[in-house]
Amino acid sequence: MEIQKIGVIGAGQMGNGIAHVLAMAGYNVLLNDISQEALDKGLDTVRKNMERQVSREKMTQEDMDSALARISPTLTLTDLGQTDLVIEAATEKEAVKTAIFQELVPHLQEHTILTSNTSSISITRLASGTDRPERFMGFHFMNPVPVMQLVELIRGIATDKPTYDACLQVVEKLGKTAASAEDFPAFIVNRILMPMINEAVYTLYEGVGTVKSIDQSMKLGANHPMGPLELADFIGLDTCLAIMNVLHDGLADTKYRPCPLLTKYVEAGWLGRKTGRGFYDYRRDEPVPTR
Ligand code: CAA
Asked: What is the span of the domain harbouring residue 237?
């Protein structure tokens, strides 16, 4: 089966990036969110990121115009029933994702593949609440989607081979690289990345380093493009905490204990870049460490 039309649920940080790369690769995209404001904001981000690519001569104005024309926004979730593949990129909360699938599933075509961009929730559990566990899998992009080369493909216990192969073909058409991960908490990237970020927060909590010295150490000492605290702000501290909780609960090992300082930042609503404050304060021109 050739995938031509793809539905993307959620026009936020991940969803708009996914719509961007799919449209650029020639797919017709139906982009869904719950408010017109969220859709407008998502499409605006896609336009700005494409404009940047045009100005850097990574794509032509003509390609940008035709890619944008391939993205159709919709407030009606059930419109996505007409697509060949659905990628859910809504909020990282299991109850939200489950409710979306429950509403959508009765409207899907028989052949439609259902996937989730979840960064850590069990694919097998999400699939079991649908009518098609064999045509359900994890399709996990990295942030920022237009820049990052990797997509994790996660098979649930019931996912069949044609479903996996069809998703792999999409990844290849995007010019990205797939890594196949088994369905265990947080898969591969976040299983390794989040404990490192959590350890950086412990390093700050215990006073071993400051925000600046910790980030500088990992940038200059380990050649990471961003320091771990800067990266945590970029991902969102609520997401980082949610993933640590999935690891802690799912693997029952104290080495995944979320740092109390990470919890405190989330309780304060200091969630990183998206709220203007996290380990750095972004409300002025230059980010200033908050500790
Ligand atoms: N959207 C689209 N394009 C973007 C972008 C965005 N948000 N941010 C940067 N870019 C593009 C720029 O246009 C530029 O493109 P060209 O090379 O074509 O000119 C390129 O990325 C580099 O950007 P900059 O020169 O402005 O900035 P930089 O060199 O500092 O790189 C970065 C920015 C690519 C984000 C880099 O800092 C980086 O790789 N950081 C680490 C990102 C990372 O680890 N992501 C994974 C997070 S974990 C995850 O996503 C999994 C999860 O489930 C939580």
From this structure: 190-289
Mean pLDDT score, 3-27: 97
Instruction: Tell whether 171 and 248 lie within a shared domain.
Output: no
The closest-lying atom of ligand 1 relative to the alpha carbon of residue 17 is: 1
49 is a catalytic site residue: no
47 and 25 housed in the same domain: yes
The enclosing H or E element of 39 equals helix 36-55
- CATH number reported for the structural domain that contains residue 276 in this entry: 1.10.1040.10
Question: Cis omega (within 30 of 0) on the bond before 162?
Answer: no
Q: Which amino acid is it at 187?
A: F
Residue 64 sits in the same domain as residue 140: yes
pLDDT tens, residue by residue, 189-207: 999 999 999 999 999 999 9
Last residue of a domain, one of 142, 157, 182: 182
Per residue in 199-246, pLDDT (tens digit) is 999 999 999 999 999 999 999 999 999 999 999 999 999 999 999 999
Q: CA 164 to CA 181: how far, in whole Å?
A: 12
Question: Separation of 267 CA from ligand 1 center, angstroms?
Answer: 27
pLDDT at 1 (0 to 100)? 73
Indicate which residue's Cα is closest to atom 42 of ligand 1. 143
Please enumerate in sequence order all residues whose Cβ is within 8 A of that of 6, keeping only pairs 6 or more positions apart, or say none: 22, 27, 28, 29, 30, 83, 84, 85, 86, 87, 170
